[in-house]
Specification:
It is built from eight helices and six strands, in the order E-H-E-H-E-E-H-E-H-E-H-H-H-H. The chain is α/β, with parallel strands linked by helices. Strand 1, helix 1 and strand 2 form a beta-alpha-beta unit.
Length: 226
């Protein structure tokens, strides 16, 4: 896990890489590389190298990334990105020819949105989303809403659906739970979502002057899907 011995997460990782047929392509915003508590390295440590491929960048053209372009043009490739055009993954996974490749964008919501809309390749695969049925266990980082999940959590839920194996989710989430536990023991605080803080009058930062950002906060308080 490349962490100091006192907070080593290796005992919480699977002894051997998990056997999965689905291949994940993690499209990572460059800013995520410098984050200390990022979750993608934990995900990569759970899976075989050929089943978890990480590409870092903001712009992905067909000329510079021919392999990715081929993957995006494959009719069995899915991209996990919520929205009006997205189908619930549970509905896709029950089809006879289950897709074998999934693309997940790793970054903040604004970074993921920028990557998705400014790269035409990512609008070629079928767009899917997860049902907001679980709350994030990544409690040491503030999420926009209660239903927002970290990249590792998204991958864990998606793989358990794609592989029809519920135990995958528990196994992949185990190191994340340990990470949060270690951080809390060493002085970190539980971070409630921005949605929770706003609704309960606990948001202690100055409200934004930007009308667009202020409108987004109003939507969070009123339970409107952004």
């Amino acid at each position: 896990c490349s962490r100091p011995q006192k907070v080593c997460l290796c005992p919480f990782l699977p002894v051997h890489p998990l056997k999965v047929s689905t291949c994940l392509y993690i499209i990572q915003h460059p800013a995520e590389e410098s984050r200390v508590l990022r979750t993608v390295p934990l995900l990569a440590a759970c899976l075989p190298p050929d089943k978890c491929k990480i590409l870092v960048g903001r712009r992905f053209s067909e000329e510079r990334y021919p392999e990715l372009a081929t993957v995006c043009r494959n009719p069995n490739t899915l991209i996990l990105y919520p929205g009006a055009e997205a189908t619930n993954l549970e509905e896709v996974a029950v089809m006879p020819s289950s897709p074998s490749v999934m693309i997940i964008i790793d970054g903040t919501w604004s970074q993921a949105k920028d990557i998705f809309y400014k790269n035409s390749l990512f609008r070629l695969p079928k767009q899917v989303q997860l049902k907001p049925s679980i709350s994030s266990q990544y409690v040491i980082r503030t999420q926009p809403t209660n239903a927002c999940l970290s990249t590792l959590e998204c991958a864990a839920v998606a793989l358990s659906i794609m592989e029809k194996n519920k135990s995958l989710q528990e196994t992949i989430l185990h190191p994340l739970q340990a990470l949060c536990s270690f951080q809390l023991q060493h002085g970190a605080q539980i971070h409630h979502s921005k949605e929770h803080l706003l609704k309960n009058g606990l948001y202690d930062k100055p409200m934004p002057k930007n009308k667009r950002k202020l409108r987004r906060m109003e939507l969070l308080v009123n339970n409107v899907k952004i």
